[in-house]
Amino acid sequence: MDEYRSRSIVVRFDGAKCIHSRHCVLEQPAVFKANVSGAWIDPDAAAPQAAAEVAHNCPSGAITYERRDGGPQEAAPLVNTAHVRENGPLAFRAELIVDGMPAGFRATLCRCGASKNKPWCDASHVAAGFKASGEPATTEAPKPLAKRDGPLSITPTRNGPLEVNGNLEICSGTGRPVVRTTQTWLCRCGGSSNKPFCDGTHKKIGFAG
Questions:
Q1: Which residue ranges form the domains of the chain, and what is each CATH number?
Q2: Disulfide engineering: 207 pairs with which of 100, 143, 164, 202, CB 3.0-4.6 Å?
């Protein structure tokens, strides 16, 4: 993980989690400099809040920060969500515990089966030509959960789906509710006919991961 320090903020970048959503270089190009050699993050180039806002918009959690000026640190969201990205990963926002380890508040997890950094997305879906709608049908009229936040545990089962436990609202890419649940199994082999949910196809195609 790379770390860039100023007197006001520490900005960290985990390249293994980056899916190149480009929020950073588009929203704060003075801080996050595209196509340069060497250090590409300059936390002194804008107010610390500007870099913090970019981190909040980074879906993969590749960019994180630590305020050193007394400003607020990133907090868990009030509603746990997983957005289904068109032809791409599942984008989670919650107090995340992935495979038993704390994993911050933002993550994009592979659902194409091709990532070389499972369970994290590494953008392999692009080269693989993965096709999967970001607008799955609403499974039922979702009723609001009694509690909508709290820790969300995501466990990649052996050669199988993501087992998710905790309060979660699964949304389409445009934000429409698909289902609200406290336990579900989400496809990560890329083969389910009921994406984003697992339908057992991983067994038929010999998925390993």
A1: 2-67 (3.30.70.20), 81-205 (3.40.5.90)
A2: 202
- pLDDT single digits (tens) 13-26: 999 999 999 999 99
User: Which among 46, 48, 47, 58 has a CA at the least distance from the CA of 13?
Assistant: 58
Q: Is the CB of residue 115 less than 8 Å from the CB of residue 129?
A: no
The answer, yes or no, to whether residue 140 has pLDDT greater than 90, is: no
Largest CA distance in the chain: 55
Contact assessment for residue 151 and residue 166, using Cβ atoms and an 8 Å cutoff: yes
Q: Round the average pLDDT of the chain to a whole number and report it.
A: 95
HSE, side-chain direction, 13 A CA sphere, residue 12? 12
Give residue 184's identity as a one-letter amino acid code: T
